[in-house]
Amino acid sequence: MNSNSPIRLSTLSDLSRLGYQLACFCPRCQRWADLNLSDLERQGVATRRVVDFTPRCRRCGTRGEKQLRPPPKRVARGARATFAHYAAPADA
After folding, report:
1. Residues 12-52: pLDDT tens digits?
2. What is the model's pLDDT at position 89?
3. Which of 10, 22, 40, 66 lies 20 to 30 Å from 57, alpha-carbon distance?
4. Please, what's the b/e burial string for 52-70 (b: 16 or more CB within 10 A of its CB; e: otherwise)?
5. Residue 38 is part of which domain span?
6. How far is 16 from 11, CA to CA, in rounded Å?
7. Considering the entire predicted model, what is its pTM?
8. pLDDT, tens digit, 9 for 90 and up, residues 70-81
9. Could you tell me the CA-to-CA distances from 83 to 19, 78, 80, 86 in Å, in that order?
10. Which DSSP symbol is given to 51?
11. Which of 49, 47, 48, 66 is nearest to 57 (CA)?
């Protein structure tokens, strides 16, 4: 895929294919849950539009609020974070 081409995030299968994640928040239980998109595909709801998908809390049945999360950042193997420290100029 060309880096300048737009991505399409219409269906649950689009999210899964592109590495996005979907989480839900229950306003009643104050609980977050990460949805398993692979399980949803196996249940036959992969073609549903994200905006029409209305998950419910397993504990209380309240309609959840969805949060779309981007794919995790991929770090090259062997790479590690480094920090540059700059010395302030000495006062003259």
Report:
1. 999 999 999 999 999 999 999 999 999 999 999 999 999 99
2. 54
3. 10
4. ebebebeeeeeebeeeeee
5. 12-69
6. 9
7. 0.69
8. 998 876 666 555
9. 29, 16, 10, 10
10. G
11. 66
